[in-house]
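Q: For a teaching session next week I want to show students how multiple molecules come together into a single three-dimensional assembly. I've collected the sequence lines for a complex. Could you give me the predicted structure tokens for the whole thing so I can convert them for display?
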Amino acid sequence: MEFWIVQSLNGIAFGMLLFLLAAGLSLVFGLMRIVNLTHGSFYLLGAYIGFTVIGRTGSFLLAVVVVPLAIAALGLVMHRFLLRRFQGAELSQVLLTFGALFIFADFSLWYWGGYSHVLSKPAFLAGSLTIGTIVFPAYRIFVIVTGVIIALLFWLILERTRLGSMVRAGVDDEEMVRGLGINTPRLFTAVFALGAFLAALSGIIGGPLVGAYPGADFEVLLLALVVVIIGGLGSIGGAFVGSLLVGLIDTFGRALVPELAMFTIFAPMAIILALRPRGLFGRIG
Amino acid sequence: MRRRFVLGIGLVFGLIVLAVAGRLSPTYYTGLMTEALILGIFAVSLNLLLGHTGLPSLGHSAYFGVAGYTTAILSLRLAQSSWVSASAGIVVSVSVAAIYGLLALRTAGVYFMMITLALAQVLWGIAFGWRSMTGGDDGLPGIARPDLGALVPWSLQSPANFFTAVLVIFIIVMGALSLVVHSPFGYALRGIRESEARMDCLGYHVWLHKYVAVLIAGGVAGIAGILFVYYHGFVSPAELSLVLSAEGLLMVILGGAGTLFGPVLGATVVVFLRNLVSGYTERWLSVLGLVYLLVVLCAPNGILGAIRGRLPSWLSQEAEA
Amino acid sequence: MPKPRHALTLSVGVLTVLVAAVTGGMSRGAFAQAPAARTPIKIGVLSPLSGPLAALARDVVDGARLYVDEVHGEMAGRKVELIVEDYEFKAAVALTKTKKLVERDQVHVVVGVILSAAVLAMKEYIHAHEVPFIVSGAAVAESITMEKPSPYVFRTSFSASQVPPPLGKFAYDKLKARTATVIAGDTVGTIELVMGFARAFEEAGGKVVQELYPPIGTTDFGPYIGKIRRDVGVVATLVPGADGIRFIKQYEEFGLKGKITVVDTAPGITDIAVLPAAGTSAVGMYATNAYVHTIKSPANEKFVRAFRAKTGRDPGGPGEYTYSALAAINQALGATGGNIEAKAKFLEALRRMDLEAPRGRIRFDRYQHVVQDVIITRIDKVGDQIVPVIVETVRGVDQFLGLSPEEYLKRPRLIALKGTFGK
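A: Of course. Below is the structure for the complete assembly, covering every listed component.
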């Protein structure tokens, strides 16, 4: 029994971590259809800069507030001056963001020397909760809660606000929305910056679990893509369910059939896509 | 007519220059050219899917690697002749394409990208984990190049001879692919790329066309994989990795998706840049990244696409579209 | 919109660069043919500078550079030139770069390399081209210097059959552990290392009751930590890089730190590039190693001071192994009057290496693998630093653990032991 409780909690925590990592991508790629391969780079820069900020000031809170804003500014510049004119040109986006990924990776390698770091947690989340014989890290509970909050905020903003309907409409029919007098390029730039903000935020909040190291950009990008695709493009709810599913399958897969640990993410993904070619909640069209 | 003639002359001349340069260069550069040709074949096969049919595969290393592993395992563990091992490599890569095609073609667009990625990752996992057969991440070293024996009195051990052999295979593959691309089948593929619904209405069996394209691309990628294994003398999970698939994609886009020679140009640029620049600066990764950025900004249709845009109109007329 | 004119300029530019590079290389190649007695000694340094283990990779380069500085750029009266190449942690690239070093730069010796797959991929080429090659990074596969040994391949770092076994005995004798769980990243090298520990631990009288193999890149170790049997005496690990940091942090979070001792069967979590990030979570671990910067000897203290002055950080294993590799080359050159072109004599002298390296006395066995002391450390907090404190030194350990090579090779290879314990 204890095994099942602990591993379920693990699975949920990992799932929520995946959702945090993927949230920005589900906006930018899922909703806006911009192939943004620098999503992982935003994560990595966020985590590395967060590490430096926490190291200098000792304040986790400061890092949570300041670093995502800085990366959002970077995202804003990238979209405004590079990506904007390639809206809809997916192959150009691939090459462009891949080039940027190389440059960001190389910068991180040069500035942080290729060292691996795991961010330190705020003191009040550093311990573990003990219930009976079960010991569970407090920080994982925090990640679960944060994941749920961000999912709720997402849902509220996209479904219940004017901004949300503008974005959704802008993706569905850009010309129409522009005809209504809405500045879609500026709107898209803002959403892209928000995506970068979320990626960097996941770098700080996920940093104590995942860490910052050379190659993390690629790994995070891959995990985020998996979650967004399994959920179905354009569906935030799909990304949420997809994250939970991947988290649970991966955790129980590794615990129950460790010989297959190498396959616990990609084999289920291939099966899901073969059965549901547009992901779990993908919109038709 | 004039256009064909000029292009034909240019092509023959170019190949002669390439052959002479390859054979006369210092061995290291011959090696780099060999690698560029091999990866060029790989990129061209991917281009059949990405550029011509509109199927963005992110798991193309599956066919490259599985052919390489088959050849390596047969020649190392079962001591088969290189003819047997190499043919088996192609057969296996086409078979894998046959299975993967069935699964992957249920999806389209980015979903196709991700399901091909996932399927390739499964093969990567097998190569990594099945150590008694594949050597795991240490890979399989010590694969000898084919002995042409009585056929041609040439030893493939010499870099120049191996280069020539790769060049011959490259020419054959390009010739065959050029025929495919300019056949009614090839036109149908590009029709599918532009609008599946229209081709469907016109009575084309869209799925079958895509499936055959996947089989051909898988087989050609397999040829590249076998050449790669013979060139380096070993195979490792890197040859099945996502990184290789992504690099293939970049080569195609860099050179020009949907053109015949663009991907070869892309492969050449990537191979030479990464090997030459890294000798001069530790920051070669940034240089490569900047080149990608510049190409997108200055030549959104790839390098070859841009060159074509500058040629006189009678010469530049789209060959394939 | 972008202008096609720029595109053409760019394309022509790229092609010009390529052509220039090729022709430039040609002429350079042609000049280098001319043999001159006092031409510089060229040493190729291969290191995966842009790979996931970039921090270790820099040690390889800095160790080499430091040695060249110390001899003022000269060995046996000839200038020394280092040519550094990055191979991205990919075996195929390592082979291509080796060809570049040998064929274009015409180096006399190659040193470095982290990643056994890269060494194994290079071995045949190195052998065929008769280039002396000293493996001086972390490439631990037994087979490199055991199966089909090449007279050109040396290793000054360590092997999986050499460094972990003393820890197995130590865990039984000194830590009084009777049962053990082994956890290793699921790669050949890391499995070989924990198997080296496992075999020695069982030979000492202990029992390995559980084997766990999380794939490299595992983010969440929860499933594995949840499975560790709570009644084992010791948890023996080899989890490299960022994975290692995550493992030891999560091990603490799940409340196991201090309850079951964790030992590192080679520098994984306790590697100097990783240890500061692992921080206090790693305190209390035991580790085995061929080199740590806390060795107390005048030679090592001088080395650490110089390394720190040059790079601002403490040297890790690959730094010392590469430094020693260059010292070995220098010694062999001294014995042959600097005539590295007389390859047979040079190799013979290299085989007879006998050095007081920073880590202590090192020699080669007849398979050209280094014979050295193995150091067991405990990770302690001293001031605000997390450091390895030496608790035991086992003198003169060779890769066959004192057996004759023939006897040792009769036993199963380490990698074949995976899955045979805990049944």
